[in-house]
Amino acid sequence: MLDHIGLSVTDLKRSRCFYDAVMPALGAACVMAVTLEETGGTYEGAGYGRDGKPSFWIGSGGRTQGSLHVAFVAPTRAAVDAFYTAAIGSGAADNGPPGIRPHYHANYYAAFVLDLDGHNIEAVCHLPE
């Protein structure tokens, strides 16, 4: 249903370093960037995705206000673990270590972190072991 989602961050360079470190665990990378010059000085951002298609954007504009939750699909439970390890190692705060969340469903294996701007970022695998 969604084509892409974007959120504003307080420090684009710092956040790019963070997401550059965690996205490979999910099979994604920065596939596009736009500069202030390209947008007429109104926006600068980086788009992450697969196969050249950006689906998750971070950009200038200051931290998105309010609580934001983004959940990324992980292809395996090991990818959830790798995401969590990379995120914590890159400065994220723990918001729920990797594990089964049976209150969602029997195979809901996820990890939650708070990114550098406090956004609740999740990696989830819905497959059995």
From TrEMBL:
<dbReference type="InterPro" id="IPR037523">
    <property type="entry name" value="VOC_core"/>
</dbReference>
<dbReference type="InterPro" id="IPR029068">
    <property type="entry name" value="Glyas_Bleomycin-R_OHBP_Dase"/>
</dbReference>
<dbReference type="InterPro" id="IPR004360">
    <property type="entry name" value="Glyas_Fos-R_dOase_dom"/>
</dbReference>
<feature type="domain" description="VOC">
    <location>
        <begin position="1"/>
        <end position="126"/>
    </location>
</feature>
<protein>
    <submittedName>
        <fullName>VOC family protein</fullName>
    </submittedName>
</protein>
<dbReference type="Pfam" id="PF00903">
    <property type="entry name" value="Glyoxalase"/>
</dbReference>
